[in-house]
Amino acid sequence: MTNQGFDDGEWQAQERARKAVREGAEPSGDEGADVAYRRIAQALREPPSINLPSDFATDVAKLASPSAASFHAKADPELRIAGTLAGILVACCVVVGFLYAGTLASFLVSPLGAWSFSALCCAAAAQGFQLLTKRMARDFEASLR
Amino acid sequence: MVRNPEDARDLCQETFLRVFKYLHQYRFDSPLKSWVAQVAYSVAKRHLERKRIPMADEPDDAEAGSLLDSVSDGFDLEAANADDQINRLLHSAIDALPALQRSLLTMYHLDELTISEIASITGIAEGSVKSHLFRSRKRLRQWLELRTGVIT
Which of A142, B55, B58, B132 is the most buried (most CB within 10 A)? Predict the structure, then answer.
């Protein structure tokens, strides 16, 4: 669109009228061309009648609920995969433990092994604590809704 | 943007559902109000395109004459002196404006959005928004003067 026919003076008159209506200023009587624009600005400030039914919000909420359920359903497979991977990891650890039990035991009693084992336990505990707090926060948010 | 109240209700519902569904895509780079307005605008625009309803008039027929044709002829000049009668007719004239002009005027006057906010919601250049606003208001003024005699 071009600015063909754009009159800056008239634009200013339109803007003056809009500002006057917005600020609720009384007409001064010497507004000239602004009178018509003021009337137009006043009409444009009146909101159109919206005849939404009283149960509109309930209907929208009902429609939104399946969307929310499908969102959680999409999230569920991710949790299942994470759980499966964790299970495989634990199984691998058990197998390795059985196979190298002797070597592992002698390593654990050594100073370096004891320190490594403690560090590993601390890391696992921290990770577990983080997961637990996240879960609790999510449950708390859900209970507020 | 949409004149049919039934359609407006359906589109309003669709807008709320879309906002709910895609809220996680909101990046906080603009006010939430503008983001929701953007969703509503695109929903309404798609509806108009589907129904083949033009968003805006051709640039050269944007004069008061076409508004005169659109607004009902049952006009009593004497009675028009009453403010409410003029207001009612003015609202009819606003309703008769093309969807785009009507939406821009509503966003600017009623929702008090800035021209740059309107431009980002509609995807129209700021200069064009300004030009649309100017022409629509001028058109309404010409219409008003034709209907009620010279006011100024």
Answer: B132
- pTM value is 0.61
What number of CA atoms fall less than 13 Å from residue B141's CA on the CB side? 21
Which of A5, A41, A60 lies closest to B16 in CB terms? A60
Q: Which chain A residue has the Cα nearest residue B144?
A: A36
Query: What's the pLDDT tens digit per position in B49-88?
Result: 888 888 776 554 445 556 656 655 555 555 555 677 788 8
The pair of structure tokens assigned to A68 is 């929310």
In angstroms, the Cα distances linking B37 to A127, B18, B43, B102, B123 are: 42, 12, 10, 15, 12
pLDDT tens for residues A108-144? 778 877 888 888 889 989 999 988 888 888 777 766 6
Please write the tens of the pLDDT for every residue from A37-75.
998 999 998 887 767 777 888 888 887 776 666 665 666
Residues of chain B positioned with their CB less than 8 A from the CB of A43: 87, 90-91, 94
Residue A90 domain-assigned?
Answer: yes
User: Distance from A109 to chain B by nearest Cα, in Å?
Assistant: 51
CATH architecture of B58-152: Orthogonal Bundle (1.10)
Report if residue A111 sits inside a domain. Answer: yes
Q: Which of B14, B137, B139, B145 to mutate to test the interface with A (most CBs of A within 10 A)?
A: B137
> CA dihedral defined by A32, A36, A38, A39, rounded to 10 degrees?
150
